[in-house]
């Protein structure tokens, strides 16, 4: 683009650039600025107040020698694996179910997607009541006559993490359904007619043909769910508070506790920087496959 063409482009789009300027400044100053500031603080000895000294990677060494942080990472890996797997399978099955042009399709689609519209705080509170041994499932079944019935996962250190996963799946599977349903609605009907003529079983069509065609939706789904896992905080605080003990501790709660309760800015920013790198590693393949690779073609 030569200078004259560039000047014409600026004149035609001057108002658009002016309108976008406040948001651009917000992104670069409020988001990018604070992000780099946090990374910088992770290399200092800051505690209650920020400091400008440089201590190298000592905060990161302290971080990874903390058992609570290691436990939070282990919990995050467990949540990530089960949450992604269950959400994807359940969401895909729901999408296939609705794609059959069933009656009251709008009703079922709204019901399945409704949990995603709720905040994680509300989701956590609702499921905390359901799993509470004194209020929820256990209490209800015992009042029906089965007094020996036990369902106290939320106070069991070995099982509490699965209660968080159940609540998160309940909320997140609707998003998977909506995204994959949009992809299924884009499949040409002639494809289905051809597979029926060839006598290919429906399950084989979905696994070998439909799922590869839904690759862009699947990538988007995995990225969105992965980011929601990394910043998972509200549902854990509402349901378990990270307990019993630290059995359901997650990195986001570890960061918030050190930042506001323990007044340890250095450790908190080091932990947040680790999670930032994790998010970038998740987003990078998505950006490359959907933008850079396509432009290279």
UniProtKB/TrEMBL annotation:
UniProt xrefs under PROSITE patterns: ABC_TM1
UniProt-listed CDD domains: TM_PBP2
One GO CC term on file: plasma membrane
Transmembrane segments: 14-39, 76-98, 110-130, 159-184, 205-230, 265-288
Membrane topology qualifier: Multi-pass membrane protein
Entries under SUPFAM superfamilies matching the protein: MetI-like
InterPro entries tied to this protein: ABC_transporter_permease, MetI-like, MetI-like_sf
Keywords from the UniProt entry: Cell membrane, Membrane, Transmembrane, Transmembrane helix, Transport
Coiled coil stretches, renumbered: none
Location(s), subcellular: Cell membrane
Boundaries of every ABC transmembrane type-1 domain copy: 73-288
Gene3D superfamilies, per database record: MetI-like (1.10.3720.10)
One GO BP: transmembrane transport
Highest taxon in the source lineage: Bacteria
One Pfam family here: BPD_transp_1
Membership in a protein family: Belongs to the binding-protein-dependent transport system permease family.
This protein's name: Sugar ABC transporter permease
Source organism phylogeny: Bacteria, Pseudomonadati, Pseudomonadota, Gammaproteobacteria, Vibrionales
């Amino acid at each position: 683009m030569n200078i004259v063409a560039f000047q014409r482009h600026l004149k035609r789009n001057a108002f658009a650039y002016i309108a976008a300027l406040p948001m651009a400044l917000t992104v670069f100053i409020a988001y990018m600025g604070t992000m780099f500031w946090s990374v910088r603080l992770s290399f200092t000895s800051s505690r209650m107040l920020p400091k400008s000294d440089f201590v190298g990677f000592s905060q990161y060494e302290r971080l990874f020698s903390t058992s609570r942080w290691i436990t939070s990472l282990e919990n995050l890996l467990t949540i990530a694996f089960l949450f992604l797997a269950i959400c994807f399978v359940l969401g895909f099955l729901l999408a296939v179910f609705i794609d059959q042009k069933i009656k009251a399709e709008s009703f079922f689609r709204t019901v399945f997607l409704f949990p995603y519209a709720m905040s994680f705080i509300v989701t956590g509170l609702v499921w905390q009541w359901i799993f509470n041994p004194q209020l929820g499932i256990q209490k209800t079944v015992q009042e029906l006559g089965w007094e020996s019935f036990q369902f106290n996962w939320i106070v069991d250190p070995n099982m509490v993490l699965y209660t968080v996963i159940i609540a998160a799946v309940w909320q997140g599977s609707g998003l998977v359904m909506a995204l994959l349903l949009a992809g299924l609605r884009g499949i040409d009907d002639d494809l289905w007619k051809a597979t029926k003529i060839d006598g290919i079983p429906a399950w084989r069509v979905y696994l070998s043909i439909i799922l590869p065609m839904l690759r862009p939706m699947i990538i988007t789904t995995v990225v969105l769910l992965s980011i929601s896992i990394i910043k998972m905080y509200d549902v854990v605080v509402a349901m378990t508070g990270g307990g019993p003990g630290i059995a359901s501790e997650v990195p986001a709660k570890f960061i918030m506790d050190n930042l506001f309760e323990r007044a340890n800015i250095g450790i908190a920013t080091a932990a947040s920087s680790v999670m930032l790198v994790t998010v970038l590693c998740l987003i990078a393949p998505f950006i490359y496959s959907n933008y850079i690779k396509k432009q290279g073609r």
